[in-house]
Each structure stands twice: as structure tokens, then as C-alpha cells.
Amino acid sequence: MTADTGTPGAEAHGTGTPGAGAPGGTGAPEPAAPHGGPRGWLRGLSELGVSAMLLAVGVLVLTDALTMEGNFIQRGPVGPKTVPVVVGCGLLLVAVLLAVDVLRGGRGEAEGGEDVDLSEPGDWRTVALLAGIFLANAALIGPLGFPASGALLFWGSAYALGSRNLTRDPLIAAVLSVTTFVVFDNLLGVPLPGGPLMEVL
Length: 201
Fold this sequence. Notes:
This protein is an all-alpha fold. The protein contains nine helices and no strands. It has helices at 10-13, 37-44, 48-66, 72-75, 82-103, 124-144, 146-160, 168-187, 195-200. It is flat, with a radius of gyration of 30 Å. It starts with 9 loop residues before the first helix and ends with a helix.
């Protein structure tokens, strides 16, 4: 009788416990070496690009806000600069905090929604429609005024996102546009172009 409990030929065919046959081996697997090189390192820090974008947008917003013309006596202590300055400072703060988190090893969680199919391509048609609607609003706000161009903006955005109610959507868009115009132009003192429609009214 023999006391051999090992598998015959395990050492010869390399199927034994990793590191068991090596001198001084402990049987524990060796740690995996970093892979990918510089490209893998950059991919791991790709979220810094989001931080840089937020930083650039924050600087742009603050620059525009601080160079905005305004009269303190006419506008009061809370003028048109207040909200852009708050938003710009918030963007800078978020950019710094995100950069610090990424450099410390933080990573965003992967998309895990049940109704999200990552194998499907992006809906570029909707993106193109929304971009065209925003550009049309920017071009028409001067000659038509904000109430008319804003109504087209709200209605067009609802249409691009899938709403097809041709009775309800234009009515809601018109109410939102006129309400926004009244709030900004009359209550907040932020002048918006009224256009021919407001001149008639």
C-alpha cells in the first residue's frame, strides 16, 4: 500500500497547484500585472474629461455673468447676474470635486437600467431634431419674439421626444411661452424680445 494521494502526472503536465512546484512557492496565485499600458491608464482617468468640460463651462458662465451690463439701482440687489454667478460657481465646485474623486480612484457605476439595451445604437434622429429646434429658436427669437419662438421651441421639443397630440401640445407650448415671457420681462426685469405678437397685444 502507498500513501500517495496526488494526481499522477500533475507536475509533468502543469495541472497542479500554481506555484507548488516552484522553489519557495506558497501556492498563492501571483497578482495580475497592470495591462493596457498608457492607453489603459488614460482610459481609467477618462472621467477627468467630464471634469475639464464642467470647468470650462463654469469659467465661460462666470465670464459672461461678470461682464454683463447692469444697473444696481434699477435692478436692485438681485439682478440678472445673480443666477449665472451661482450656477458658474456651482459648476467650478462640481468640476473640482469630480477631479479629486477620480484621482483618488473613484469611478462611475456602469449603466444598469433594466430598460436600457447597451447593444442598441443611439437615437441620433431625436438628437438631430432637438438640435435643429434649438437652432431655429435662436434664429427666430429676434424677428418673431420670444412668445412665438418659445412656443415653437416647446412644441418642437415635445414632438421630437415622441408627443404627437396636435391639439394639446401647441396650446400648452403657447401658455408656457407667454408665461415665461411675462415672468422674465415684467417680474424679474430681464428684457426679452416681444416681437410683433406682443406689440399687437
